[in-house]
Sequence to fold (165 residues):
Amino acid sequence: MAQKRNIHGKKPGFKVPEAYFNTLENSVLTKLKSNSYSEKSGFQTPKDYFRDFKLETPSEEKTIKVIPLKEWTKWMAAASIVACAVIGALYIDSISSDGNIQFSDLDNDMIERYLDDHLETPEEFIDYDNTSVIDIVDQNIISLKDKDILEYLNDTIEDQDFNND
Fold:
């Protein structure tokens, strides 16, 4: 089982002395207490530095030359921003698809599938009270013959599955 856990199939060549981790803390503390690590960094402050420290400020003010922005520089910055916006808009327009999709471009099956998926009843799609379609529907219902209605009902009943599985 131990052989399966070792990827290389060999024992690693590194060993830790016995009780190394148990004695590590004590050995580090004894070295610190013995001041064997009291080496100096080499940086020293001069004698009485903080007592004699004086902040010296220049007595005379230096004049600073102020260079104002020229008027044309402001206009150049504004023009470059507008140019970037125009180029960006043209680029976006060039990578977009040619033309917009019109409703007439859609396939009838695609429209039917969309309406089946997104509408629960046909009344959601057509507002019969506020359209002139209601007159056409009424005329078509009146012109239906009894024979056509019976054929439709027979076909619908034959297509239905009445098995209650």
Remarks:
- The chain has a mean pLDDT of 76.
